[in-house]
Amino acid sequence: MLPTALSGLGFGLSLIVAIGAQNAFVMRQGLRREHVGVVVVICALSDIVLIALGTGGVGAVISAHRPVLAGVTVVGSAVLLWYAATAVRRAVRPVALVADFGGEAGRMVPVALTALALTWLNPHVYLDTVVLLGSVASAQASPWTFAAGAMVASVAWFAGLGYGAQVLRPLFARPAAWRVFDLGVAAVMTTVAVGLLLGLRGDAG
Questions:
Q1: How many C-beta neighbours within 10 Å does residue 11 have?
Q2: CA nearest 147: which of 130, 126, 122?
Q3: By C-alpha distance, which of 127, 141, 143, 12 is closest to 72?
Q4: In the chain, at which end, N or C, are there fewer CB atoms within 10 A of the end residue's CB?
């Protein structure tokens, strides 16, 4: 069972390590030390639920109902573009940059809602975590052991990203670093959103 769990661990990491909308947000909250625990818990628990759904067979249902996935893709792309615009506004307006990490932290509810949106309205989550990982898990002799390994990978990754980002805080003590980071986040969000919409158009064609 250990080899199966380790396979799930490695496969789970391969899906979530790439820098995307969710990871960029977790890293930003970690750098600012704003509600890191809340964000990490939301992302990790969401992944656990999604992995369980995929392993339980929901991935096959989603694959069979493309209009549902298409709807999530449109909404998710809109959320990503909105967050990209927000990141650009932070980068363009120096008043939005907090070089010394002082001042009042952002409110927890908006931060939590953003974490939920970037997780549950991201079509990649359903394609990768539910459909792909669920399919691979179902092909194993012990599907839930494989899924458990993937769940551990998610918890370890988000905790490490959120709390490990603090190592980079000295670099981000300068407004210029925040400007570059936010512009990078905007670029990632926009690229993902446009890619999703183009993919949707291709499927329709």
A1: 17
A2: 130
A3: 127
A4: C
Burial 26-52 (b: 16+ CB within 10 A, else e): bbbbbbbebbbebbbbbbbebbbebbb
Query: pTM to 2 decimals?
Result: 0.71
Q: How far apart are CA 31 and CA 99, in angstroms?
A: 11
Q: Of the candidates 146, 179, 161, which has an alpha carbon nearest to the alpha carbon of residue 12?
A: 146
Q: Is 100 exposed, middle or buried (0-12, 13-18, 19+ CB in 10 A)?
A: exposed
In angstroms, the CA 201 to CA 171 distance is 41
CA distances from 31 to 28, 44, 99, 133, 198 (A): 5, 18, 11, 30, 33
Non-local CB neighbours of 48 within 8 Å, separated by 6+ positions: 151, 154, 155
Instruction: Measure Cα distances from 77 to 3, 118, 131, 133, 153 in Å.
Output: 37, 10, 19, 22, 26
pLDDT, tens digit, 9 for 90 and up, residues 85-138 = 887 887 776 443 444 444 445 689 999 999 999 889 887 787 778 877 887 787
Give the HSE-up count for residue 197: Cα atoms under 13 Å, Cβ half-sphere.
Answer: 14
